[in-house]
Amino acid sequence: MIDFEIRARDGFARVGRFSTPHGTVDTPALLPVVHPDPRNQAIPPNEIAAQFGLSAVITSSYITWRSAPLKERAEREGIHRLLNFSGPVFTDSGAFQQHAYGHVEVDPEEILDFQGRIGSDIAAVLDVFGEPGASAEEARRGVELTLERARKARAARAGLLAVPVQGGLFPELRWASAQGASALGDVLAVGGVVPLLEQYRFADLARVLLAARPALAPERAVHLFGTGHPITFAFAALFGIDLFDSAAYHKFARRGSLLFPEGTLALEDIKEPFCGCRLCEERPLTSLAKLPVAEREVAIARHNLWMCATEVRRVRQAIRAGALWELVERRASAHPALLAGLRAAVKGSSVFLAVEPDSRPSFREVTATSRERPAVARFQERLSRWRLSKGVYRAHRRVPLVPECLSEVPVRGPDQQPLLWEVPTAIGPVPLELSEVYPVGVWVGPEEFERPPNERTDPEDAPGFRLPEGSERSQRVAEWTQRQMDALLEWQFPGCPLPRKEPDLHGIRSRNTGRLREFSFRNQPAFRIGNDGLPRPTWIGAGLLHRWEKPPGLRVVVLDDAVPFVREGRSLFSRFAGPVDPGIVPGASVLLVDRADELLAVGRAELAAHEMGRLVRGVAVAVTAHARNPVPEAPEERQAAPAPEH
To answer: Between the N and C ends of the chain, which has fewer C-beta atoms within 10 Å?
Structure first.
């Protein structure tokens, strides 16, 4: 059983780790394809680890088996000594050769047994390669036969097993194959996609991954066969692909082509030494054409592998920073085919919502597809439901939610009925009270730099109303503070009765910025508001939510063995998570309770609801407050806002 652990994430994309008999694999990971015959391998595998920092490789067990000298040595010494590589070795089974040549001479049981005898860390099932042009019946038979082979392989192999996911271009077959593979494999290898990658059919690839993704078990590592070009890595990671394999670094070198994250260039077209990587600083690209053919091939292969390794690190950084969508959009702008793939991905935004983070540090608009990201789709869907219970909104210029601006915005009309105002944002009008909520509150787009600086509201936006003075101005700010507090709690915790039930709950504004930063309950911090505009409960706020929100709302039940540790403020590990509110997404504030619904702590979810309890390693909820540490340190001074008069 694989011990996959999620250490950081951005939606489906995971920075993770799992162990093998020859070391750990940190994901997303690049597995360079290495030839078992060193005469056909441009870069020695031990150099791949030492010079490029790549800890795992993939090789063909079928090519090894088919060559008598290689087979004999691999069986005698093991695949690691044959390759002269001490790290994890993933072996494939010959399915690609079956696709390329129409057949292979080995049967599934024999090649699986061979992978075990040579000491493969992750062995692969010999699947039936699902050609993109296959009929529905052909694809169905391929899926059934692959799963039949996988069941036999699982019974025969105790070590890590990769089970391919097939199904051609048929969504229902991809889903069924993914579900079947998830019950058998440690690594779920999405196959049959090499023709799509070779033909730049990224829109079809996106549809394949959208179909399979919901059925892929979150506790397994996911591999996408054939993702060899660095332009594809961020795109694949968006769907939760953890492992890439690349033969492209050497294949492209043979024909004199250099890989970059933005595309491919032929050596003869390079006129400037523009690449600043470590290898090209030692030997500029413009000098490679003068080398002998064999030496030139190795130099290009080394450059290509460096580009691939660097791009994988860039993808991991983007995941950690919550900026993977931005990276994908930048990469997609480099090629129309990849942009078509991204457009297909955002059309399936609903697939991402179960793991879409509660918020991110920022939202940068990169391309037109930025406004179709899952975060936007979820915000707009929630906003549509929000409007159903409200009155008619009036248009207003964008108003910063600070006292000097709010004092100019009328709260009530001449008839003393509440006035509802909305302000323009990049994705349409939004109620004023919600205008600092993620994603609109942290949105950075071109409009930000087109408007005049320090644009303020104008009295003529509210015809018929005079600007208030003195105490009236202060009273208006107090009413807006209360309205904003009520709106944020209702937005973040739908159906939350606290604003109506708890008159002792008041909003507090920052002394430095004037923005709403805290909700106080009887002079104690109950909720803190971060840069994402969302209220996060302290221990006191958690107690209020726990009192008014009925189970299973907002809750993660802690299994008995972990109760004492969580009560003391320790994080809840996935294997100790019991029943969960199915609406919890990564980053959401959650209540940690025991089986009797006693409140133990409050925290931030690291996993989605359907992932908790399934991963055997890693944190499910990071505790932020508990009885002995009820209120985390405030980031800045607080200033109580005056309570509105009733």
So the answer is: C
CATH code (residue 110): 3.20.20.105
Q: Is residue 360 part of a domain?
A: no
Pairing of strands 619-626, 572-573: antiparallel
Distance CA 407, CA 331 (A): 45
Give the pLDDT band (50/70/90) at residue 468.
low
Burial (CB < 10 A; 0-12, 13-18, 19+), residue 448, is exposed
Burial 237-266 (b: 16+ CB within 10 A, else e): bbbbbbbbbbbbbbebbeebbbbbbeebbe
Q: Please say which residue of 208, 228, 247 terminates a domain.
A: 247
Top-confidence range, 383-392, 406-415, 531-540: 531-540
**Residue 403 C-beta-side C-alpha neighbours within 13 Å:** 22
Instruction: Report the C-alpha gap between 623 and 538 in whole angstroms.
Output: 11
Catalytic residue among 10, 37, 92, 113: 92
Contact call for residues 174 and 212 (beta carbons, < 8 A): yes
Count: domains in the chain: 3
The pLDDT of residue 638 is above 70: no
Q: By CB neighbour count within 10 A (0-12 exposed, 13-18 middle, 19+ buried), where does 619 fall?
A: buried
Q: Nearest Cα to 27, choosing from 312, 304, 218?
A: 312
CA atoms within 13 A on the CB side of 487: 24
pLDDT tens by residue, 305-328? 999 999 999 999 999 999 999 999
Q: Please indicate, yes or no, whether residues 506 and 589 belong to a single structural domain of this protein.
A: no
Same domain, 398 and 501: yes
Q: Are residues 548 and 414 in the same domain?
A: no
Query: Is residue 108 a part of any domain in this protein?
Result: yes
The predicted-structure confidence for 155-210, as pLDDT tens digits, reads as follows: 999 999 999 999 999 999 999 999 999 999 999 999 999 999 999 999 999 999 99
Final residue of a domain: which of 247, 272, 291?
247
Residues 366-410: tens digit of each pLDDT: 999 999 999 999 999 999 999 988 888 999 887 889 998 898 899
Model-level pTM?
0.93
Angle between helices 171-182 and 202-212 (to 10 degrees): 50
Whether 3 is catalytic is no
Domain contains 555: yes
**Quick one: what percent of the chain has pLDDT higher than 90?**
81
Where helices occur in 164-277 by DSSP H, the ranges are 171-182, 194-198, 202-212, 233-237, 248-254
* Inter-residue contact 341 to 210 (CB < 8 Å): no
Q: Are residues 86 and 166 in the same domain?
A: yes
In sequence order, what are the residues at sequence separation of 6 or more whose Cβ sits closer than 8 angstroms to the Cβ of residue 402?
A: 513, 514, 515
- Per-residue confidence (pLDDT) for residue 279, from 0 to 100: 84
Q: What's the confidence (pLDDT) of residue 282?
A: 86
Query: CA-CA distance, 258 to 266, in Å (whole number)?
Result: 6
Whether the Cβ atoms of residue 467 and residue 459 lie closer than 8 Å to each other? yes
